[in-house]
Input
Amino acid sequence: MKYLIILSALACVAYSQLPGPCESPKQWEGRVLTLDRSKNFTQIGKVSYDETQRRERIIEEVEFGSDRDYFDSLFLHNVGKGYILNLKTRKCNVTNLTEPFIPRGIPREAEFSGEATIGAAGVPGEYMVVENFKGTFRSTGAKFFGVATRPDCFPVEFGYYNEKTGFVQQTIFDVNIGISDPNVFIPPRECL
Output
């Protein structure tokens, strides 16, 4: 019986040492590469991201099959509106957003699933340590995974799966904290 109590206590101590979700920066700008191989979809763009106000803007090049297009996309989840301006035709599509805002950082409901080294481990300046997380969004039931730098929790990769969209994977790079131009979240004049 003593051994069982000691073993249980050791298991609790070991479990309590697993890292919880880190807190990613709430506002940042960077570049994003989004892939959905099942739909032959690729998107690369510059993103301005504001988790606090639930909004983001992406100036993007989109490849869908053999078609290529360029968009200025603004998603204002805080007011439920989306603005997608085709940069070739200058035609704007304004929509009501029905999908919930999906954070690009590590969600609160994430579970730690391990850490890894990207680059040449042990060579100064040639590697970084990342933490891997996974989970299920309580709000939608969509499964997700996230990879963030340690110790500052900059998002590096994020992916999610749900029945409507399938599996979507995003790689995030060239990240800078903050929003350089607060007017970036004003809809393009073609959309007003």
Notes: Residues 3-16 have pLDDT under 50 and may be disordered. The first strand starts at residue 27 and ends at 36. Residues 56 and 189 are 17 Å apart (CA to CA). The helical segments are 2-16.
